[in-house]
# Entry
Amino acid sequence: MPKVSHEYVKEKKKSILEAAIAVCKVKPLYDISMRDIIKASGVSQGGIYRYYSDLDEILIEVINLVNVNADYKHIIDEIIDTSNSPTKTIIKLFNFLGEYMKENVSTVGKIQFELTILFANNPDREKKILSSIY
# Structure
């Protein structure tokens, strides 16, 4: 097997994750198969297994990626720290929440909701996935 650079592996994994996120947007999480991600990524079946051992490993990375992109604690802290009245604080928090939901409902919200269904039907996958999510 020819050696490839670390950068090449990183880029290939990134393209697979982008394809997986695209699949997550149009198909229920609990109904996604490795074949769906292979098709969307354009990577061969054998090729994808060079980067990820199974579907759950891809889903874990997708979830961690969207969670990192959805890190909003610092924004909430800033709203709370800079508002001078409880009413203004609540209004700013609700405005932020509305914007956040508008921007992230198709990825973060959808994935989080569908994880509930996936976990309800697959307790073993729940343990595996939850233990690796940060």
Observations:
- The two ends are 33 Å apart (CA to CA).
